[in-house]
Specification:
With about 350 residues, the protein is of the alpha/beta class. About 30% of the residues lie in helices and about 20% in strands. It has 11 helices and 13 strands. The protein is globular and about 60 Å long.
Length: about 350
């Protein structure tokens, strides 16, 4: 079988680096292009020594590829995606530039007016557990945000079955790699070490994405959502604790059966028997989910754990690529967790 040629646009960010690492172990593709405008002309191994096995030179623009992964900052992907699509290149965009269907939300949440609102309608939201059939024939896939991936997978079964009603609270913690590689005070070691802090209390930019997908998943009215993210002194991982009121009575056994049935055929979902640890997903494309009902309050509590750089970014992107090319969905993504 002829291997597909793929490229990573902006390999020097954490998501781009992780993509290069995963693609290097994928038998169905050949990574032929990596870009990074500030370091164009340098050898990849000189910039990122841990990728020394990849004999590639970083360029300013992607070369001749069948599919490009865009790991650019928000607002920079849209124009690049439009150009590549015109050239017949499939695109998986890791930024938020195509996640929201409503173009009017971009100025409010991302600070720019979307230059290609027509593409928002043709872009497919890249969560295979919900949209596998639409991803397969897609030319443009919008990779989910890391927080939304954890929250949506945690609550999709009960939203679809109308088990919960009213408001939903999502309390989520992320490792510092989710903030990106650019230098900032909040990710400085002395600021972040031995410290946990909530942020974006006025509204995190992943909130409209979560609301959009919850509304599409819900069998009844769209729920109200309160989302509070936190930074924790870890490199990788997201732990999302989701709370909702139960509308339809369901036993603990029935709840577990509901989740097992909903995700029975999903290769990267594990419905676990105890609250998951982020380290148990580290380096993998897994989402670990633990649903339980608080007997005293009657509140549904669902805990989910993912690696924010894999299922929350690069691994999810490779999973989407596998579907788009007709590969085995787990190709290049079979690693077990790196522990401890």
């Amino acid at each position: 079988m002829t291997r597909k040629k793929v490229g990573v646009v902006n390999v020097t960010g954490y998501a781009g680096m992780e993509l290069a690492r995963l693609l290097a172990g994928h038998d169905g593709v050949e990574l032929v292009s990596v870009t990074g405008r500030s370091v164009a002309g340098q050898k990849l191994a000189d910039c990122l020594p841990y990728l020394e096995g990849l004999d590639l030179t970083i360029t300013a623009e992607p070369g001749n590829v069948d599919l490009a992964f865009l790991a650019l900052p928000h607002s920079e992907s849209a124009c690049e995606a439009a150009r590549l699509l015109k050239e017949g290149v499939k695109v998986v965009d890791i930024s938020a530039d195509f996640r929201l269907k409503n173009a009017a939300l971009y100025p409010e949440w991302y600070g720019f007016t979307h230059p290609f609102p027509d593409l928002l309608q043709s872009a497919v939201y890249g969560l295979p557990e919900l949209y596998r059939g639409q991803i397969r024939p897609a030319e443009l896939v919008a990779n989910p945000g890391c927080y939304p991936a954890a929250a949506i997978l945690a609550l999709a079964p009960v939203l679809k079955e109308g088990i919960i009603a009213g408001s939903i609270v999502i309390d989520a913690k992320s490792g510092l790699s989710g903030a990106g590689r650019s230098l900032s005070l909040k990710s400085h070691y002395c600021e972040a070490n031995e410290n946990v802090t909530a942020y974006a209390l006025e509204g995190h930019r992943h909130l409209p994405e979560i609301i959009q997908e919850f509304a599409l998943a819900a069998s009844t009215e769209a729920p109200e959502v309160t989302f509070v993210p936190h930074l924790v002194p870890a490199t990788r991982g997201i732990l999302a604790s989701c709370y909702a009121r139960v509308k339809k009575e369901i036993s603990p056994v029935g709840l577990k059966e509901l989740y097992n049935s909903y995700y029975r055929s999903e290769p990267f979902i594990r419905v676990v028997d105890e609250a998951p640890h982020t380290k148990r997903a580290a380096g993998t494309n897994l989402c670990l989910i633990y649903p339980v009902i608080d007997k005293r309050s009657g509140c549904l509590v669902v805990i989910s754990a993912i690696d924010n750089l894999v299922k929350g970014a690069a691994g999810q992107a490779v999973q989407n690529m596998n579907l788009m090319f007709g590969f085995e969905e787990t190709a290049g993504l079979k690693a077990i967790a790196a522990y401890p």
